[in-house]
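I am going through a labmate's work and have reached the protein record below. What it holds is a sequence and that sequence's fold in token form. Please read both lines and tell me whether the tokens look consistent with the sequence. Do not assume that whoever made the record got everything right. Thanks in advance; the entry in question is below.
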Amino acid sequence: MVKKIDLCVAEGIIKKYTGGVSDLIPVLQDVQEAYGYIPEPVLYFIAERMNIYPSHIFGVITFYSQFKLKPAGKYIVKVCVGTACHVKGSERVSKEIHELLKVKVGDTTDDNRFTFEEVACVGACAQAPMVIVGSDEYGKVTHGEVKKVIKKYQK
């Protein structure tokens, strides 16, 4: 069943701004906060109302990792794959999370509990490899510790 999207919410958000291309990121941030992600019909609605090509908006959304085109799970699990984390084994940590959650990077579990992401850098290189679940940060995570971290949120 396709969920109906209320465009009145997006209309109210757009009206708060002048409508220029310089307002696009704040509009997208507000839209995402309101809907939990940026639904495709809303993307086209923003394009029409702000007179911006949909491809430009899509480019902005996919460039910035803060924006989501699909609903995210209750917990967003991020594995840093920056240089320091990679050198310290983040690839193995990421693989373990993939196996535990049975979900690919960028996807959400069937129960909508977890969304699994790899991020370029979280700025905590001394704690490599880093795993972030929601707002909780776990540093120097080993292959064996991953299961404990995930189980904490499965309860």
